[in-house]
Structure formats: C-alpha cells, structure tokens
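okkk here we go again. third time trying to get the calcium ion bound version out, last two times i messed up the smiles copy paste (missing a bracket lol). double checked this time i swear
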Amino acid sequence: MLCVLLSVASAAEPSGEMGRCAADPTGADPAPADAGCGCAAMRRDALLPPPSPLPSPQQSAGATAPPPQMVWIPAGEFVMGHDNRSASPSTFLADGEGPSRRVRLPGFWMSATEVSTAQWAAFAAATGFQTDSERFGWSFVFEGQLTPEADAAATQAVQAAPWWVAVNGANWRRPEGPGSDALEGRADHPVVHVSWTDAVAYCRWIGARLPTEAEWEFAARGKQVGGAKRTVFPWGSQLVPGGVHRANVWQGAFPAANSAADGYKFTAPVHAFGPQNEHGLYNMIGNVWEWVSDYWSTRHSRSTTHNPQGPASGTERTKKGGSYMCHKSYCYRYRTVARSQNTEDTGTGNLGFRCARSHEPTPSTESKD
Ligand SMILES: [Ca+2]
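finally!!
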C-alpha cells in the first residue's frame, strides 16, 4: 500500500519532502492547491557515511583540441534575471527571479548536451563511482513512470506532491526502479537520479566543472544577449513557434494526462529537437533540470558583477531549465530566467546536468579529454 510521506524520516527509510511550488494563475489548466511541480525542493533526511574521494580527472595526450561535445561561449555581458513580475507572478518573488542585474563573463566551454546515461555508464565503469541514490538505496520517481515491481513495492509518497514516490532501488541505471534499465533503448537520454555531488564528480573526471548559474543563463540566451533584446526561451518568445516543438515539456493536465504532443512522454534523447539557439546547445530548456554550481539564494544585488559564483554558502544548490514534467499551469519554469533548487544529495527522475569548462584551450595549458 502506498502511504503519504510526512516530515518524519529515519536513516533507514526512504524519505523526503516537497517545497512550495505555486501554480501560475495565467495558465490554461487548473492546478491543485500547492501542487508542487516536479521541480521544488525535495530532500533526503538520512545520514550517510562520507563518500569516497572524487575520481581524478582523466589524463590524455593532445593539447589543442576543444573538449569533445562542448561549444565555446564567447565572453560577454548580459542582463541576468528580470524585473517583469507579471510575466511569472507565481515564481518571480518565490524563486528570486529578480531583480535584473548586469553580469560580465569571460568565455567558457559549455557541454552541447546534457550528460547522457551512456556517458555516465562509462564514468561509473571506469571509476566505480557510486551515486548518492545508490548509496541511499532509493530515489524519487514520478508515479507515472513506476515499473510494476516498483509500484508494488512503493511505500511512501511526498505529501505536497504525491506523484513523487520514494522508490527503493531507483538510481541512474534503473530510473523507474527495479525492472527498468536506462541502458536498454535510451542510453542517449540524460542521466537522472544524480545528485549535485555526483554531477561535480563526473565533470571533474572529464576535466571540467558545473557551469555557474550566470554561465548557464548567458549560454541559454544565445547570441541575442548583448542589448535589451531578450526572449523567454533560447529560441524566441513562443513556446511552439510555427507549431514546431523546440523542447520537451508537459502537454496536458498534470499529473494525470500527458499527450506528449512534443513527441516525448518522459525524457528525450539529449540531441532531440535540434539546437535551441545559435550556440548549438540542446535541451537547455526542458527534458531534465540541470544542476549548476551555485548555492541557492533568492536575494540578489542589482550591482554589476564579473563572473559571479553565487553565495559563499548555503543549504541547497540551484538548478535551471525545467523538465519534461513542467507545464505553465503549475510549473512555469522552463524559461531561461527561471530557477529552482534542491539539496546537494537529492536525486530525482527529472534532474540531470551538463558540464562547463573555463578558458579557451591553448597548447600549453589545456589537455584533450
Ligand atoms: Ca514532453
């Protein structure tokens, strides 16, 4: 029997809680009160022994080639965040989308795609790295994706968002729990059930790092960021321009009806939909949320900053881009300026990442990954 998870947790049992995630009153579909959205702050309450040391970066010959599957984002200045609270009334204040502030960034490399399950599998095989979800023994799975085995064994759901189920055995390899296998038929989909700490370990292994929130938002904007020209999405201000889907989000009344009009009910391949902007970046918006390096804060200075790294400390980490579970009616967060957060050890079926890397490579300072 599935029971609703309250705030009580123990070290041995799957646990979690879901933060507020209000509906957008401008959305077309009604949303349950305090619906959550597949994007708010769930967390584990158990304690784990310290993880093993992070794997060392790969060492290989070659000095001048750019990192594979990364694109160069030239240095620039842009306006981060926004001031138009009427554009996102339910999230503007709650998520700290504003105020707008000018940010200058040096150039950097950005992964063209989210990290795929195949890429993660290579990392895990080479290093033996254990994700937090593997060490905890469970992770959060959307109820609509449970395997029969996982559904039968499920014991706890999240009170504020009962479509999130804590599933024993769910991890990057078995994203829907026992009986699922991400390497069968969808190895090119984004790896999920990876925590912030896991993502940092992978990026370090390829000689990279997580992008900062500023880098992520700057890259998502595309090349139209120099002036006042700003669009809601990386490709423009229409979600489905000319009837062509550009991102993997939810169509229908969440959580019961998902028409998958964009072609994907859940995750999509990391290269699906084609590049979302002129940089050649795929699925910045939609598909899975993406960890960035910054600690979470909803308070920002209007001052111009150079290469901001986020708060010096905090209890949660920031994520960007929204996921296949997002719909305007309850989670209008698939916008370049939108943001959300989770604790560092959280894993879910709609949360992944991509990596970034500083500096244009030169023969003397860069190595080929
Ligand atoms: Ca979809």
